[in-house]
Design brief:
With about 350 residues, the protein is α/β, with parallel strands linked by helices. The protein is built from 13 helices and 11 strands. The radius of gyration is 22 Å and the shape is globular. The relative contact order is 0.13. It is an enzyme of class 2 (transferase).
């Protein structure tokens, strides 16, 4: 437990004093037969389903269903337009432009830095170690009185490995700012989610997504889990209707498919191991980072030329060879068995 954490001391003054916008659906909750409060079109929509009414601004039904799956009470949950919305809200709530700073641990997900730049927040980078773990001494040295956020991606993108849980707990106990753990790929990992530690750490925010294992990337639904107080801050500053009704309806339907998702996860993990074992037989492959995600980071000879060749073959991977500590590497998403076989055949053809 971080006993010295003080949420109010972290909040920007204008956010602490903010009176949030009150929408029509905030002012009246319940059922009615005549809706004349929100200036909506009363005739319906030119679609098979009517979308003329504003959606539930706090997505109560969807959160209730997600709560059963995630094992997290709905009041500890925020739903955003992708995880990117939650990342942006963290900056807007806690970081004063040109005053505060955040700590990133490259190589990591690039949107943390982009969002910092958009919000005019200084970024302090403390590179991961050569085995892609936290440099605790470096992080401790980088923290000052204006450090408000620290982002940790685990399993990490683009490396695929999980970050040592004890190291994360060390930071949670000793850092008085917000520790953000991005668990976008947690479904593929043997490591437990930090959602189990929410009651223990008031400075913990966990990001998850339905874009990966759940196969709903096009619907743009991200999840954030945190204390009730932090969730209340998110709800205070988010756009009134940030999750549209079509997304809410489709996700509610998709959440009935837990068994299918679990089978897909098992299949992906199995294919990941097959892909790794076959890549390891190639002489041109110098290193494969152990992965807890649905992708692998592969260091090999001539990565940029291989990438260009794969593009010519209609096979798209991610060139990470210019990323810090990922020199010479391609990031390869685990596909279906036929897709992986086609990839391996193309790589072998290129090197032969």
């Amino acid at each position: 437990m971080n006993m010295s954490f003080n949420l109010n001391a972290l909040l920007r003054d204008n956010i602490r004093k903010l009176v949030p916008y009150s929408s029509a659906r905030d002012e009246f909750k319940g059922e009615a037969s005549v809706w004349l409060d929100a200036n909506e079109n009363p005739f319906g929509s030119p679609l098979p389903h009517d979308y003329n009414r504003y959606p539930d601004p706090l997505q109560h039904q969807l959160k209730h269903k997600l709560s059963k799956i995630k094992g997290v009470p709905a009041e500890h949950m925020f739903l955003g337009n992708g995880s990117d919305e939650a990342i942006d809200l963290l900056y807007r709530a806690f970081c004063t432009p040109q005053v505060d700073n955040v700590i990133l641990v490259p190589p990591t997900y690039g949107m943390y830095e982009v969002s910092a730049n958009i919000n005019d927040i200084a970024v302090r980078k403390v590179n991961l170690t050569n085995d892609y773990q936290l440099n605790l001494d470096g992080i401790a040295e980088a923290i000052d009185q204006h450090t408000k956020l620290l982002f940790i991606c685990s399993p990490n993108n683009p490396t695929g490995n999980s970050i040592n849980a004890q190291d994360i707990e060390t930071i949670l106990v000793n850092f008085n700012g917000i520790v953000v753990i991005d668990e976008a790929y947690i479904n593929y990992s043997k490591q437990k989610s930090f959602t189990q530690a929410l009651a223990e750490f008031p400075n913990l925010v966990i990001l998850q997504t339905l874009s990966k294992a759940w196969g709903l990337a096009a619907l743009r639904l991200g999840l954030a889990f945190a204390s009730k107080e932090i969730i209340e801050v998110f709800n205070k500053i988010k756009p009134p209707y940030n999750i549209n009704q079509a997304t809410q309806d489709l996700v509610l339907e998709a959440l009935d498919g837990v068994d299918i998702i679990n089978e897909w996860i098992k299949a992906t993990v199995a294919e990941r191991e097959v892909l790794v074992s076959k890549l390891a037989t190639l002489a041109q492959v110098e290193h494969i980072t152990p992965s807890d995600a649905n992708f692998v980071l592969v260091k090999l000879s001539e990565p940029r030329a291989l990438y260009a060749y794969l593009v010519e073959q209609g096979i798209i991977v991610r060139d990470r060879s210019k990323v810090t500590l990922c020199e010479g590497c391609l990031r390869i998403t685990v596909g279906t068995k036929p897709e992986n076989e086609r990839l391996l055949e193309a790589i072998q053809t290129f090197y032969n």
